[in-house]
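In practice, a research group might receive sequence data for several interacting partners and want a quick structural hypothesis before committing to experiments. The following worked case mirrors that situation: the sequences arrive first, and a predicted assembly follows.
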Amino acid sequence: MDESKIEKHTIAVLVDNEPGVLARVIGLFSGRGYNIESLTVAEVNNADHVSRITLVTSGTRMIIEQIKAQLSRLVPVHRVHDLTDEGPSVERELALVKVAGTGEKRIEALRLADIFKATVLDATLTSFVFELTGTTEQVDDFVGLMAQLGLVEASRTGVVAMSKGASGF
Amino acid sequence: MPEQKLTGAQIIIKALKDQGVDTIFGYPGGAVLPIYDALFQQNDLRHILVRHEQAAVHAAEGYARSTGKVGCVLVTSGPGATNAVTGLLDALCDSIPLVCVSGQVPTHLIGNDAFQEADTTGITRPCTKHNYLVKDVNNLARIMHEAFYVARSGRPGPVLIDVPKDVQFADGIYVPPTEVKHKTYRPQVKPEIARVEEAIELIASAKRPVFYTGGGVINAGPMAAKLLTQFVKTTGFPITSTLMGLGAFPASDAQWLGMLGMHGTYEANLAMYNCDVMINIGARFDDRVTGKLSEFAPGSKKIHVDIDPSSINKNVVVDIPIVGDCGAVLEAMLTMWKARQKRADQAALKDWWKQIEGWRARNCLNYNRTESVIKPQYALERLREALRGKDHYITTEVGQHQMWAAQFLPFDQPNRWMTSGGLGTMGYGLPAAIGAQIAHPEAIVVDVSGEASFLMNMQEIGTAVQYRAPVKVFILNNQYMGMVRQWQELLHGSRFSQSYSEALPDFVKLAEAWGCVGLRATTVAEVDEVIEKMLAVTDRPCIVDIAVDPKENCFPMIPGGKAHNEILLGPEDTPSSATPEDGMVLV
Ligand SMILES: Cc1cc2nc3c(=O)[nH]c(=O)nc-3n(C[C@H](O)[C@H](O)[C@H](O)COP(=O)(O)OP(=O)(O)OC[C@H]3O[C@@H](n4cnc5c(N)ncnc54)[C@H](O)[C@@H]3O)c2cc1C
Ligand SMILES: Cc1ncc(C[n+]2csc(CCOP(=O)(O)OP(=O)(O)O)c2C)c(N)n1
Ligand SMILES: [Mg+2]
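A structural hypothesis for the assembly, expressed as C-alpha cells:
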C-alpha cells in the first residue's frame, strides 16, 4: 500500500442535532489540519432530532482512518460511514447558476443547459438562473462552460451521498 | 417516585451527591451565587476554596488521579471559566475524568457582550471531552448525570457544564442517575477475542519481547495494574512504561527497566529499539516516547491495546490493534495464556535478558556524586530513602526536577504519581498535591518542584493552610528554568536567553509569611536533616528550598528527532551529528 497516496473519501455522519454539534465537527477538521472539500448538513429525523452530515475529505489512508476515528469519538455522533470504502454509492450536488448575456451566447447557454438537463428557475431578457443536479464533476463542467458564456454567480450545496442497495444506515 | 421540584442550583448539588461526590474545588462569583447559596445550606458536600480557578482544576485532577474518582470543579462565568481553561486542557491531554460546572450570564443576555460573559462552551470545546450549555432547567439533572458518565467512560476526560444564572434560579424536575442513559456514547470495553488470540500467539513466539505500558493502565483502575503485573510476571518479559504509566508495575521488581522515552533509561530505550515484539498496553506512541518515527523499534511486530480507536495507527502503524479496556484485555490475555498453556521461548528470553543486563550495567542514571554541591538526583535519592515504607503520594511541576523525580523515585503502586505529561503545565504540582492530600489526609504528599514552576501557582499555599493540608513542596532550586537552560545549552549554543530565575523570593520567609514551615538545605550534609524535619510537619504545609547544582543536566536524553539508539548518557556525550532541522522544531 502506498502510504503517501492522497485519497478522496465521502463520509456520512449521523449526529444528534444539538447546539454546537456542527462547530465540533468543523473544529475537529480545522484544529487537526484535515481537509474539508465539501460539507452538508440537515436534520433527517425530526422526531429524534438526528442530523446527517455528508463530508468530502482527502488525505492519506492513515489520515482518513484518523478522521473517522476522531469523528466517531465525538460524544453526539451516532455513526460514521465511509461511503467510499463501503461499496458503491451515489452522490449528488445541486447548483444554482446565474448567467447573463444576449444573442449567440444566451442561446448557447440554453442549449448547454438542455444537454446537462438543467432547468430554468428564472429568466429575464438578459439572464437565466439554472438549477442543475449532478455529480460534482458534472456541476464543475457546467459551471466551467458557463464561465465562457456570461456566468454571474454559482451557488452549490456540496455533496450528499448514499450507499446503493437495500440496506441503510 | 414522585416528581421532585428543585431550583437549578439545588439540582446541581443533588446530582453531585447522587454521583457520590464528597469534595468540590471552586471559586465563587456573580454567575454562580445561587449554587454557592445551595452549597451553604447543606453539609454533605465539601467545598475547597482555591486561590485561582486554574488551581481548582489541577486540585480536582490530583483528587481524581489519586482516588480513581471523577474530580469536580465549580467556577464563575467569564474570567472564572477562562482561568480554568489550562486545567481543563491539562486533564484532556492526560485523560483525567473531571466535571466542571461554570456559571454563565442569564439566557436572555447570552450574545450581548454582557458583564463577565464569555463563550465558554466555544472556548472550551477543544479543551474538553465534551461540554454543554444548559438552557432549560428541566434538562439540567440529565445533563449532570450524562456528564459524569462521559467523563469516566471510555477514555476519561474533562466535561464542562455551562449553566446560566436564570437556570440556577428556575424550578425544575430532578431525575436520579439511574434514569439517565446516554443516547449515543458507548465506548468498547471488551476486546474482540480473535484479536486477543492473535496477540497471544505472537507473544508466545517472541524472542526479544518488551512490554510498553502507559497511563491507560492507571485509567483502567488498580485491578488492571494487578493483572498487568501478573501477566508480566507470568511471561518473564521485560517491562518499561511512559511517564504517565509509572506505578502500574512495581519499580522494585527485577523485570522493570525504568521509564522509556526522551529521558528514559538506556536499557528501556534500547530494549524498545531492538525488540521483535512490542506489547503496548494503554500508551499512545507520544512523540516524547517514539523519537524519530522512521527508526522507532524498526524490526518489531506491535500489539496495541487502547480504549480509544483514534489512538490506534495515529503515529505508528501496528500489527495487532486491540480496542478495549486495559483491564478487560489483560484479563482475557491472561486467561487464554493459561488455558492454552503458553510459555515464552525460554532460551531466547535468556539471551535477551543477557543483552538487557549488558545495557543495564551502563548504569545510565549514575551522576557525578560530589560533596561540594547538592546534586538534585542526590536530594531525590535521600527523599526516596526517607519515604520508603511510608504511605505517600508524589506530584511534580514541569521541568528537569519532574524528569529526575520520574527517574529516581520508585513507584510500586498505581495512583501514587501525579504529573502533567501531555500538556506539561508548570504550576500543576502544588494544587494537584493539595487535591491528593484532601483525598488522603493521613498520607504524605510531596510536590517535587522547581523554583520557577512553584511561582506559577504558589498562591495555593493559602488554600493548603486554610484546609490544614500538610503538603510538602520540595523545591529543587537550581536558579534556572533548568529544562529550558538544558535545551539552550544543547541546541542553541548555550545562549541562555531569559532562562535565569532572577529576583527569587526567600522561600523560607515566604513559608513563614503564611504560617507554614520553611526549611533550607545548602550543603550535602543538611539534606537528610531537612527531609526529616519536613516529614515531621503534619499540621501545616512545609516549603523546602534545596539549593542544588545550577548547572546539572538531566540524562539520559534523546534529542528531539533522534532514534532510541542515539541516546546521550551524560555531559561527555555530544549528539552524533547536529540535530536535524525536523528534530529542532520538535518541543
Ligand atoms: C518535560 C517533559 C518531559 C517528558 N519526557 C517524557 C519521557 O522521557 N518519557 C515519557 O514516557 N514521557 C515523557 N513525557 C510525557 C509525554 O509528553 C506524554 O504525556 C506521555 O509519554 C504519554 O503517556 P502515555 O503514552 O502513557 O499516554 P496517556 O496520555 O496516559 O494516554 C493514555 C492512553 O491510554 C488510553 N486509555 C485510557 N484509558 C484506557 C483504558 N481504561 N483502557 C485502555 N486504554 C486506555 C488512552 O486512550 C490513551 O491512548 C514528558 C513530559 C514533559 C512535560
Ligand atoms: C505554563 C508553562 N510555561 C512554560 C513552560 C515551558 N517550560 C518547560 S520546563 C520550564 C522551566 C521550569 O523551571 P523550574 O520549575 O525551575 O524547573 P527545572 O527545570 O529548573 O527543574 C519551562 C519554562 C511550561 N512547561 N509551562
Ligand atoms: Mg529551576
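Before designing any experiment, note the following. Residues B 94-95, 155, 214-216, 219-220, 242-245, 259-264, 282-284, 286, 288-289, 306-308, 311, 325-326, 398, 402-403, 421-422, 424, 483 surround flavin-adenine dinucleotide (ligand 1) (CB under 6 Å). The CA atoms of residues 44 and 51 of chain A lie 5 Å apart.
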